[in-house]
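Inverse folding, one chain.
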């Protein structure tokens, strides 16, 4: 009888007008479909192989925001679009005292999709966030979680959205699809073997200050 009653309740909810089990999922899907064309893979040739990361197109002319540690010591930087197109990128600038923000430029001979910069001052602990990146080379990977903590002293947003090697330079997004941070690092007591749910992003407002000093946004 109990199983029958539970089944009846579930059927009732699924037939109610306007009820949807997939409302949250649909939000994530729509954000991903809108933003992913503006997310790129960044590969930098270094002496012992490749340094791999993620980038965000922030200007339709081909300006890309990424983490400086992805491209710092590379001689050749190649950007791969979500459609598989490859472009050699020029490093325009390293931004910020911590030298972990960089601007790249590619010439795609067309206007490119971009990601909108949000306002990290409005970010709250517990807020739902999404991350898109290329962890371990799996390009266009979407993960989700919450803002776990805000470290005002070190200017870092902490999140439990899965961030792994290759995700550096990718966006941490709010539920409006705006960048609130650039994924930078994970807490890795096991030497990058796995994600344990503690990742860090540089707040986008800190980056916007540097962008204003070097180019118009």
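Residues assigned per position:
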């Amino acid at each position: 009888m109990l199983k029958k009653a539970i089944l009846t309740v579930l059927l009732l909810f699924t037939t109610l007008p306007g009820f949807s089990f997939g409302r949250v999922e649909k939000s994530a899907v729509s954000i991903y479909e809108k933003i992913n064309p503006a997310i790129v893979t960044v590969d930098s040739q270094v002496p012992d192989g490749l340094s791999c990361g993620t980038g965000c197109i922030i200007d339709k002319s081909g300006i890309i925001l990424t983490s400086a540690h992805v491209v710092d010591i590379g001689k050749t930087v190649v950007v791969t679009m979500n459609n598989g197109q490859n472009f050699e990128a020029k490093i325009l600038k390293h931004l910020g005292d911590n030298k972990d923000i960089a601007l790249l430029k590619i010439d795609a001979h067309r206007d490119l999709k971009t990601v909108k910069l949000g306002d990290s001052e409005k970010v709250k602990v517990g807020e739902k966030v999404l991350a898109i990146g290329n962890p371990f080379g799996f390009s266009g990977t979407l993960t989700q979680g919450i803002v776990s903590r805000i470290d005002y002293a070190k200017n870092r947003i902490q999140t439990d959205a899965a961030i792994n090697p290759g995700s550096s330079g990718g966006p941490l997004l709010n539920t409006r699809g705006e960048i609130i941070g650039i994924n930078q690092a994970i807490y890795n007591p096991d030497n990058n073997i796995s994600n344990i749910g503690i990742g860090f992003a540089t707040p986008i407002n800190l980056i916007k200050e540097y962008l204003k000093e070097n180019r118009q946004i």
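The two ends are 63 Å apart (CA to CA). The first strand starts at residue 39 and ends at 46.
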